[in-house]
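Hypothesis: this fold can be encoded by more than one sequence.
Test: take the C-alpha cells below, design a sequence, compare later.
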C-alpha cells in the first residue's frame, strides 16, 4: 500500500510553472510589446472526440505532485543552497520514495535547474510583472526597485537563490551555472531597459550611463543582503533605501518633462 504524503507547508506558488527537460527559459517580456499570435490548425471532430476521451486525471495528478516536490525543493534550496539538494533529501522531506522523486526529474542536476527556473518564475510574478503596471519611466523604475527590495527583505531569513547560487556556482561551469547566469542576466536586462526608458522619457539625465546605474542599484541589493543576512546589522534596509534615493538624485533630470515627443527623441 503506497504511503500517504503528509501536507507540506511551503509558500504558495506565485505561478504554475511546469518545465520539461531542456525547456525554454522564462523571459521577462514588456507587455507593451506586441507579440503576434500563432494560430494552430483546426482539430478534426474525430480527433477532438479521441482527445476528450483520454484520461486527464493521471496527468493532472502527476503535475500536481511535481509542483509539490518542486516547491519543497525550492524551500530546501533557499535554506541549504542548491548543492544541498539531493533526490534522497527531497524524498525524505516529502515522504516519497527516491524512485518516485527521480521519476519527475531524472537527475539531481535537472532538479537543481528546475528549482532555478521555478525561483525565476516566482520572482517574475512577484517583482517584474506587477511593476510593469506602473507608468513608463521613473515610476516603473521605482516600482521595480521597491518590489525587488521587498522580495530581498523577505529572503533575509529564507535566502535568495540568485545570490546564494552565484556563490556556489561562480567558478563551476555546467548547466546549473548556465541556468543561473541566464536568469540573473535576464533580470538585469529588464532593469537596464527600464533605466533606458526613464532616460527616453526625460526623467533621468540624457548622459546617464544605464549600465553604470544598474551596477550601482544591483550593488545596493547585494549590500542589503550581506549586512542584513550575514552581519545581522539593524537598519540595513533603511540604509539601502536611502542609498537608492541617493543614486536617483545623482541621475535625475532637474527639469522633468511629462513626456517626450517622438520628434524630441529622434532629434
Amino acid at each position: 500500500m503506497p504511503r500517504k504524503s503528509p501536507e507540506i507547508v511551503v509558500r504558495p506558488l506565485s505561478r504554475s510553472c511546469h518545465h520539461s527537460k531542456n525547456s525554454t527559459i522564462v523571459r521577462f517580456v514588456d507587455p507593451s510589446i506586441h507579440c503576434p499570435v500563432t494560430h494552430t490548425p483546426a482539430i478534426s471532430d474525430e480527433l477532438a472526440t479521441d482527445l476528450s476521451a483520454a484520461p486527464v486525471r493521471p496527468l493532472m495528478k502527476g503535475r500536481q505532485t511535481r509542483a509539490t516536490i518542486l516547491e519543497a525543493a525550492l524551500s530546501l534550496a533557499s535554506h541549504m543552497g542548491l548543492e544541498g539538494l539531493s533526490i534522497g533529501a527531497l524524498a525524505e522531506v516529502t515522504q516519497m520514495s527516491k524512485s518516485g522523486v527521480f521519476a519527475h526529474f531524472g537527475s539531481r542536476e535537472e532538479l537543481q535547474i528546475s528549482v532555478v527556473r521555478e525561483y525565476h518564475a516566482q520572482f517574475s510574478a512577484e517583482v517584474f510583472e506587477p511593476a510593469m503596471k506602473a507608468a513608463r519611466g521613473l515610476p516603473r523604475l521605482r516600482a521595480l526597485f521597491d518590489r525587488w527590495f521587498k522580495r530581498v527583505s523577505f529572503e533575509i531569513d529564507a535566502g535568495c537563490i540568485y545570490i546564494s547560487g552565484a556563490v556556489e556556482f561562480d567558478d563551476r561551469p555546467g548547466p546549473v551555472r548556465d541556468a543561473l547566469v541566464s536568469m540573473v542576466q535576464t533580470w538585469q536586462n529588464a532593469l537596464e531597459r527600464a533605466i533606458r526608458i526613464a532616460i527616453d522619457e526625460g526623467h533621468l539625465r540624457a548622459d546617464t550611463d544605464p549600465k553604470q546605474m544598474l551596477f550601482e542599484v544591483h550593488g545596493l541589493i547585494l549590500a542589503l543582503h550581506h549586512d542584513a543576512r550575514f552581519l545581522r546589522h539593524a537598519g540595513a534596509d533603511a540604509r539601502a533605501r536611502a542609498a537608492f534615493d541617493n543614486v536617483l538624485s545623482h541621475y535625475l533630470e532637474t527639469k522633468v518633462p511629462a513626456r517626450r515627443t517622438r520628434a524630441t527623441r529622434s532629434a
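Residues 1-27, 29-53, 256-267 have pLDDT under 50 and may be disordered. The longest helix spans residues 175-200.
Hypothesis status: open.
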